[in-house]
Amino acid sequence: MNPGEPGSETDEWMQQAFNMAQTALARGEVPVGCLVVYAGHVIGRGRNQVNETKNATRHAELVALDEALEWCRAQGLAPAGVLQACSLYVTVEPCVMCAASLRLLRLPRVVCGCRNERFGGCGSVMSIHSAELPHTGSTFQCVSGVRSEEAVDMLKTFYKGQNPNAPNPKIKKGNQHPSDLASTPSLSAL
Description:
single chain, 190 residues, alpha/beta, 5-stranded mixed beta sheet, 38% helix, 15% strand, tRNA-specific adenosine-34 deaminase activity, metal-binding, tRNA-specific adenosine deaminase 2, hydrolase, EC 3.5.4.33
């Protein structure tokens, strides 16, 4: 059975990640869900909480990692040893920030749904997962494309609406695109 095939272990973990992403979507967040799995058990779950917390670092991966670290403390286990034996399942390719965190924590394997063409740190924009970067943890395997169409559909659903927490765009004077200048009242009167 191939990873991501219906009924596979990967598909089961990804389904749970998609459930987390659905919760994020229902709460007005970018629909990304994540699991940290250790020895066949989920030790961390996360969904995007950026809008809810007004904290730009509360990506699904970091929320799940925080929960996994708390689990390690509660079990009396050293996080470094546990995380080096974990797999992370996430609906969208980790961004550069999250990929760097995964690398520093030495997680060996990430399974993700769709690519992140704007901020991806596992091959789409940067290859944090595989680049030769001294003193920055270990490289990790990234398996992408697992249920990618489903992940893209969830993102499309989110971006069809408006994010009420997004900042208003601000264009500095002199930074306008030439096509915008024609509609500027002071210039159109010339």
